[in-house]
Amino acid sequence: MPIRIRYLGLVYRASGLYEEIIYLDTPIPISALLEIVFERHPEVMKLIYVEGGLNPLYRILLNGRDIEHLEGLNTKVYDGDVVTFSSPFGG
Amino acid sequence: MRFKLLRVDLTNLSTKVDELNGGIIRRYVGGRGLGAYLALKEIPKGADPFGPDNKVYILTGPLVGTASVESGRYHVVAKSPLTGILGDANSGGQFGPWLRFSGYDGIVLEGKSEEPVWISIVNGEVKFHDAKKLWGKGVFHTEKIIRDEMGIHDESIGSILSVGPAAENLSRISAVMNDKYRAAGRTGLASVIASKGVKAIWAYGNRKPTEELYDRKGFFDEAKKVIEKIRNHDISKALYQFGTAVLVNIINEHGAFPTKNWQQGTFDDAYEISGEKLADTYLKARKGCWGCVILCSRVSEVEEGPFMTPLSEGPEYETIWANGGSTMISDLAALVKANYLMNDMGFDTISFGATVGTLMELYERALKGELPEDKARELIELAKDVNPTWGNAHALLQLIWMTAYRNRIGDYVAEGAKRLAEYFGYPDAAVHVRGMELPAYDPRGINSMSLSYATSNRGGCHLRAYSVSFDVLGVPKKFDPLGVDEEKVELVKMQQDYFAFIDSVIVCKFNTFSTGPEDYIGLMKTGLGWEDYTVQELLETGERIYNLERLFAVREGYGYQDRLPKRLVEVSLPDGPAKGKTSKEALEKYLPIYYDIRGWSDGKPLPDTLDRLGLEEFKYIIS
Ligand code: SF4
Questions:
Q1: Cα–Cα 20 to 30 A to B350, which of B318, B325, B416, B477?
Q2: Using the beta-carbon criterion (under 8 Å), do A6 and B510 form an inter-chain contact?
Q3: What CATH class does B443-513+534-622 carry?
Q4: Rg (Cα) of chain B, in Å, rounded?
Q5: What is the extent of the structural domain holding A33?
Q6: Could you tell me which of B556, B562, B411 has the C-alpha nearest to residue B492?
Q7: Which residues of A touch B234 (CB under 8 A)?
Q8: Does the complex come out with an ipTM higher than 0.95?
Q9: Tell me, what's the pLDDT at B202?
Q10: What pLDDT shows up at residue B70?
Q11: In the beta sheet, which residues pair with residue B484?
């Protein structure tokens, strides 16, 4: 099952990609997806992982909803979902 | 501190200098606050924005040009021809510091000159120059001619504020321009300057505001701490890398990127016009305003093709959204070009793009027979050579010229979205608050923005309170952008008050992502000698300013009602994560709480509130 991953702003810089598709066999929680992403892109991990957890200025969205307002890292991703790594910003 | 105010009487081409005392500065600070105070006292009720009674306040603040924290800014205040109430706008670049270096902390333009003039201010000496040969010229050429005349071609020395052809032709969506690409964009105040016969102001001099500080050493120590905080913050780094355009994809992902004139919340081609794409294509350099350590400005160039554009500054997020998302134009090169031309003609790029989006909707409805028959016929006739259809980049570019010179349909676009939509018989196509076009965040997808927009004193604006920071980014605390939470109301009010201070002191708002009110206390104590200054006084000052602005609208008898356009409260988003949402529920919940916290009733300050803020002299307005 394909999951679309998007990397925005500083995460885009770190991954060198705007978007990629990761194929999963079964639905998995975001925490497991993070491991796959970090293995593919160690620079992303260096960027968004700080001592004690994820840097709160880097938000993770599932289909446009911040996972903090879903089930956090336990939120499961399913077939066709879009997971976005969002960057700090100002405007 | 004494504030040296140059009063320019355009009717008689004469000047005088007022020195404002420290008491006034402590209460209103400078910039936006001082402008609101003076405007409320000096601009008569009911004044015609284009008449001689209106005044334009071009003001710096006590931190401007002091090598402190991103203090290269100035503020413009006048009665707005777009909203009919108090207008104000802020700009970076270098003009603010150079105005102070020239010997004055602010300028007031009064009366009306019969012939066009430009004004030079050099070390306190003011001269009026014939501007007939500049009238009709774009901003870039105007600056070149003035620099030729002054014999200073190094653009880091001296600075020019000017208005473009859009303002000369009294477009209500024109921007005050400085240093070619920087704009005090909102509320159409450039046309007020032009209506007074002023084309440009040259500022140059050797005054050193830093030497006037109360405790220079202490001030530098304080400034260093704040600068380090700003420089090392992740948001500052992101702004440096991608500029504000990094927001295109982020806001689009949240379903709050107003698309097709607010008929959708997502744009399929967002990536094509994003900051990431810009960085990989036309971006040539990064740049900052005077004294900036963030450097959020872009320098772009399109080297070939139909949208070839010379090296120039921009585009920023709001410009890209208004001229791209709102119009569904997905060619980034076209947007770089449009930005360049809008700067040269002197447009507010937000209002311009938003008005073109409105025109595209009206045109589509005219073709479908959804406008009154006579209006549809007239619109099609006026616009047929432009063909303003969704995604048509050539139409956008053509409209910039046509609007600046008020040619055919451009004559109506020059009036802004509200008047355009009303004229063609479909007012709901204009998405505005108090007559000013809304910026690039759909409050149906970021619901705190419903309150921020509805209560924004200058009309639809994201810079009175940038509640996106807590609903999306989580600064200072993360909220669900779709969740209705009373705590957001207090934060919106706090931002409004804090930002009013920031616009008065004046520093860049991008500081506020990494600093808080407490960071400015040391600067005020050491810079101005206000040794007993506190966070509470700072926020109360902001609140005083916010109430003053509101009083201007109350006195005019309109513009104090806090409402959102029908499209946002009655029509739900059809797509994205906010699908099915309107702004109705959030606004209905937030507004009564907001009034309670503010001490207002139905949008009007209560007598006790004015007493508490020391605004007794304006109580006559609410009695
Ligand atoms: S952050 Fe951007 S807008 Fe603010 S002062 Fe720096 S360059 Fe200017």
A1: B477
A2: no
A3: mainly alpha
A4: 23
A5: 2-86
A6: B562
A7: 10, 55, 57, 88
A8: yes
A9: 98
A10: 87
A11: none
